[in-house]
Amino acid sequence: MDSVKSQSYEVHINELAKAALNQHVANRTYSKIFLLVDENTKKYCLPVLKEIFDGPVDSILEIQSGEENKHIQTCLQIWEDLSNLDGDRKSLLINLGGGVLTDMGGFVASTFKRGIDFINIPTTLLAMVDASIGGKTGVDLGSLKNQIGVINQPQMVLIFPEFLKTLDPRQIKSGYAEMLKHGLIQDEVYWQDLIKKSNFTDASCIQRSIAIKNEVVLQDPTEQGLRKILNFGHTLGHAIESYCLENHDRKTLLHGEAIAIGMILEGYLSHELRGLSKLSLDEIKKSFLRFFDKVDFTDEDIDSILQLLKYDKKNSHGNVNFVLLQAIGEAVIDIEVPEELFQKAFAYYKE
Amino acid sequence: MDSVKSQSYEVHINELAKAALNQHVANRTYSKIFLLVDENTKKYCLPVLKEIFDGPVDSILEIQSGEENKHIQTCLQIWEDLSNLDGDRKSLLINLGGGVLTDMGGFVASTFKRGIDFINIPTTLLAMVDASIGGKTGVDLGSLKNQIGVINQPQMVLIFPEFLKTLDPRQIKSGYAEMLKHGLIQDEVYWQDLIKKSNFTDASCIQRSIAIKNEVVLQDPTEQGLRKILNFGHTLGHAIESYCLENHDRKTLLHGEAIAIGMILEGYLSHELRGLSKLSLDEIKKSFLRFFDKVDFTDEDIDSILQLLKYDKKNSHGNVNFVLLQAIGEAVIDIEVPEELFQKAFAYYKE
Fold first, then answer.
1. Which residues fall within 8 angstroms of residue B104, CB to CB, at 6 or more apart?
2. Under an 8 A CB cutoff, do A313 and B144 touch?
3. B173 and B162 within one domain
4. Quick one: which of A24, A28, A309, B2 is 20 to 30 A from B76 by CA?
5. What is the distance between the alpha carbons of residues B41 and B123, in angstroms, rounded to a whole number?
6. Domain tally, chain B
7. What is its EC class (chains A, B) (predicted)?
8. Domain boundary at A119, A142, A166, which?
9. CATH classification of the domain holding B77
């Protein structure tokens, strides 16, 4: 496996990741090394990491897993732990976990004493191919996702597909949704390849997804233009995810499950507004419904979801802009969508 | 009055500041303009700003003044206000206040939706010559100052010495301590000039101080080396400030009052370790005691202050490094100080 070069850090896989981690820590004079885990990664991933990492870990900081804990109070707990354990500017934070943990750990590291080094070791497929790559860090504000954060790159991102063995299939599929997105926005051949797969954790696909995300981020790190294509499916997807998180009667959707719905809906908008063929649209719907069960939405649900849209952080001046597809593998950004199409998109999803 | 050029923003004074503000807002298409005030700046400075600023302000956000409110919960309040008032990525936050407000407003703006534009309009002498310049933003963690934050530059810093007319003399002197520091670390002529003054708000001195700070920050924005000289007096000064804030029986010291003591103490260390002449040391002590009453410290106070030292964010690997003076106008960084000298420094201060 090769390494994928990124702007100010590198993404390494398997043996190269192991070597990079040990070499990095040996070459730097970190005053303290902190490891951030949650109850799951402590149980399932820490033993594996102990086999991989030769260096000392001074303290293990534990937080509770789950999007519902991705808020500033959890950051406060980590900041206080770092401070109480004599963390200083030359400390290193290693984030061992899924996207919630790497987003939050990255934010805490970027703001502790105005920034200390951090390394991401994603343990879910979603975090490997998406969350841990690209430097977006942050937390939710109430039910609004990722409202508070900074863009800041880790020292390195290390990918060990072995961690995926401990993951439940629902989590794996959630990550696969982002990989499918990478095909949809940038690479039709990759999309065609992915929709036929039944092994969702193929290392070469993980690497292809990381490479696509990295290519995009490298060209536009602060999301002035091109990087926005990575938000395909996310504008409606985030609103759906927030809505289900807020409503305790509803089953919570995983991120990938929500954006899978978002991609069908935004696929419909693409067909209506940007000429995505009906054939491609139907292929998108059929493929996602092969991996993800259809979710029931009432009219009231849909109204509430559309209310949440206006809070999405990618909105500006009150308009909701979308990333749409002209064809599979060709995304366009900053498309305004007339409101009446949203209901039609849900109708297409439900039919 | 000229403008002082800084790295990615400009510092403007008086008429130029007025023109720069109005032009900047006219040239940009901000979706919303938010103004952050506290109860004091709302009362005393907002009416003045209304005369200066032609543009619309969509919402005024008010926080409580005072270092004791410089914590993450106040940030949470501002983030929520921005979110509830439909702030988005193209919003602007104008910070109208002292250093606590500009530090906190800068941090909130730097982290809201991963960063929106902000402008600092400092209303205290301390904020004009120090806090609002250089891009350090952040909040305290418990009694530990500025533990959480990022380095990020505002769009511009606007100086209106007129605001100082509403300030009480104790606040003015607090800012003067930082100006005296600028002389001590970089410019003996300026120091000699300042210690003879009785008008502490001379616009040309404000500008000289801003220029000194800016020159230093420009050469080393992220404090890898040179910028550390700005911490002269602050290592012990911060510990003293934190200690007095924590102990409700003690009168709280203003920042400048605390670092004035810090500069006498660190002047003593400079004499012991870096050859600062006894004559200069005595001049430093005499000058600060001319402006600032001597504070009583018991042995227990001093022990507690020295305990707090190890938490100072500029420490690394458990050692406490100091900025010391070789002569007035010549600072050196990263000097380790043997612990036994701390007690002697306090003894010199008290004698």
1. B63, B70, B74, B75, B78, B137, B138, B139
2. no
3. no
4. A309
5. 8
6. 2
7. lyase
8. A166
9. 3.40.50.1970
Total residue count of chain A as it appears in this document? 351
Residue owning tokens 């940038």 = A186
Token pair for A1: 């496996």
Q: Do A251 and A340 fall within a single domain?
A: yes
Does B162 lie in the same domain as B189? no
Q: Give the sign of the dihedral formed by CA B273, CA B276, CA B282, CA B286.
A: negative
Q: Among the three residues B117, B138, B166, which one is the final residue of a domain in this structure?
A: B166
Q: Which two tokens stand for residue B238?
A: 């911060």
The domain of A72 spans 4-166
Q: A178 and A52 in one domain?
A: no
Instruction: Give the CATH number of the domain where residue B226 resides.
Output: 1.20.1090.10
Chain B partners within 8 Å of A76 (Cβ)? 72
Same domain, A36 and A148: yes
A162 lies in the same domain as A173: no
The pLDDT, as a whole number, for residue B1 is: 44
Q: List, for residues B265-290, the tens digit of each pLDDT value.
A: 999 999 999 999 999 999 999 999 99
Claim to verify: residue B66 and residue B140 sit in the same structural domain: yes
Q: How far is B142 from chain A (nearest CA, A)?
A: 9
Name the token pair of A191. 């999309």
ipTM of the complex: 0.86
Q: For residue B149, give the nearest of A111, A138, A148 by CB distance.
A: A111
Q: Which pLDDT tens digit goes with each residue over B88-116? A: 999 999 999 999 999 999 999 999 999 99
Asked if A162 and A181 sit in the same domain, the reply is no
Q: What is the DSSP string of B226-270?
A: GGGGGGTTHHHHHHHHHHHHH-TTSPPPPHHHHHHHHHHHHHHHH
Interchain CB distance below 8 Å, A316 and B115 = no
How many angstroms separate the CA atoms of A287 and A176, rounded?
A: 12
Partners of B147 on chain A (C-beta within 8 Å) are 79, 83, 112-113
A136 touches chain B (CB under 8 A): yes
Shortest Cα distance, chain A CAs vs residue B29, angstroms: 9
Q: What is the pLDDT of residues A85-109, one digit of tens each?
A: 999 999 999 999 999 999 999 999 9
Chain A touched by B86 (CB under 8 Å): yes
Which string of DSSP letters, residue by residue, matches A51-85? HH--S---EEEEE--SGGG-SHHHHHHHHHHHHHT
